[in-house]
Amino acid sequence: MKLLLLYLSLTLYPLDRISTHLEIVYRPTLAGGFSRTGLFPAPPVTGELLMPGWTFRAKGRIYSSPVADAMGNIYVGSQDDNLYAISPMGSELWHFSTNADVDSTPTVYGTTVYTGSDDGYLYAIDTQSGQLIWKRRIGTCRSSAYVDSHMLVVTGNSSVYAFTHEGKPLWRVRLRGSVIYASISRNKHTGHFHVTTRNGFVYAISSRGDVLWTKNLAIGTSGNGTVVITPSGQLLVSTSRKLFALSSSGDILWTHEGSFSTVPALLPDGSIVAAAQNYLLRMSRTGKTVWRKQIIQSRKSINSFLSVDRSGNIYFGSRDDHVYGVSPSGSVFLSIDTGDDVDSTPLLLSSGTLIFGCDNGLVRAYRYTGTTAPKPPLHH
Fold it and tell me: For residue range 161-177, what is the model confidence (pLDDT) as tens digits?
């Protein structure tokens, strides 16, 4: 196994603000928060000797991305039809069985974990017991739910659904286009929800379920089509031929040509990083190329979301059976041979933890021995 760089601490960062160029607040959901920026308040992965921390084996492929709650417990779905809860030391706490693949990335809110399944249901599960609280039929659900103190919003088939925490339906918006795999993003400036369809429509939806505007990009979205919301409220949408930046009212601000294979992420200075097949690109906030580097020497592509630490280092899985770490200047400093494709997005914890799922059904955690990464300062 090819191993380069990382220190694992199983201490999670609490939901506090970390000092950096941009405000970063971790939420246990896809891409580290409901703006889906991929930013984590974690320090750089550093150390002297990379060592496997633990390995957990599911019985099916893992396309779901792991998330962690405030106790350090990990939640991830598998194509063996189960959602797993894993302790900070890598042992199974419980599993909850559905009737089809669980490719949905869970969202944890309080003591409830929400996940979708290809069996057509959204599930609310107690994090302590693993017991079902409620389930609702919404159609195939591979998205990660948005949850706040008032409601839960999630996509299923070609609709967006809102529920109370008790599972009572609030509203449903039917969208034009095929099945939606995109997760719901929320713009903190406007309070609007945003989602795309696979055939290139972008929607803005109010908290009451009103469609405020739609934009037809006329190009199919790439990755799963999830919208990234920048700190200024702009929307970033990747497609098979362009990266689009839209205003909060749906106007196209700029585009960047490229065959993008996944959803972009933000660096702490507000610049943008995106994957175009086997290349990684860094762009300015206005879409100008800063650098473009070929990361994978074969024709295999980068398909996981990109995770970014508070110093701007970028971590991702690829279909050449590796997890990579790339510096803000584009230098590869981390390469882990995983033995199979990695479509799952890496999870970064507070002192340099890397946890990811593989297509071979393994969830892996890595740590460094020797010099440890400094713990980030917390600002209350």
Answer: 999 999 999 999 998 86
Beta-carbon contacts of 325 under 8 Å, excluding residues fewer than 6 positions away, are 4, 5, 6, 45, 313, 314, 315, 332, 333, 334, 335
**How many C-beta neighbours within 10 Å does residue 99 have?**
10
Q: 48 with 369: CB under 8 angstroms?
A: yes
Class of domain 17-41+53-307+323-375: mainly beta
Supply the pLDDT for residue 207. Answer: 95
With beta carbons less than 8 A apart as the criterion, state whether 117 and 132 touch. Answer: no
pLDDT, residue 4, reads: 36
- For residue range 278-336, list pLDDT tens digits in order: 999 999 999 999 999 999 888 888 989 999 998 999 999 999 999 999 999 999 988 88
CB neighbour list of residue 210: distance below 8 Å, 6 or more residues apart: none
Report which of residues 32 and 7 the model is more confident about.
32
121, 138 Cβ separation under 8 angstroms? yes
What HEC string does the chain produce? CCCCCCCCCCCCCCCCEECCCCCECCCCCHHHCCCCCCECCCCCCCCCEEEEEEEEECCCCCCCCCEECCCCCEEEECCCCEEEEECCCCCEEEEEECCCCCCCCCEEECCEEEEECCCCEEEEEECCCCCEEEEEECCCCCCCCEECCCCEEEEECCEEEEECCCCCEEEEEECCCCCCCCCCEECCCCCCEEEECCCCEEEEECCCCCEEEEEECCCCECCCCCCEECCCCCEEEEECCEEEEECCCCCEEEEEECCCCCCCEECCCCCEEEEECCEEEEECCCCCEEEEEECCCCCCCECCCCEECCCCCEEEEECCCEEEEECCCCCEEEEEECCCCCCCCCEEECCCEEEEECCCCEEEEEEEECCCCCCCCEEC
How high is the pLDDT of residue 43?
A: 77
Q: Which of 62, 70, 56, 66 is nearest to 26 (CA)?
A: 70
Burial group, residue 130, by CB count within 10 angstroms (0-12, 13-18, 19+)? middle
Examine the pLDDT at 374 and tell me if it is beyond 70: no
Beta-bridge mates of residue 366: 52, 354
For residue 206, the one-letter residue type is S
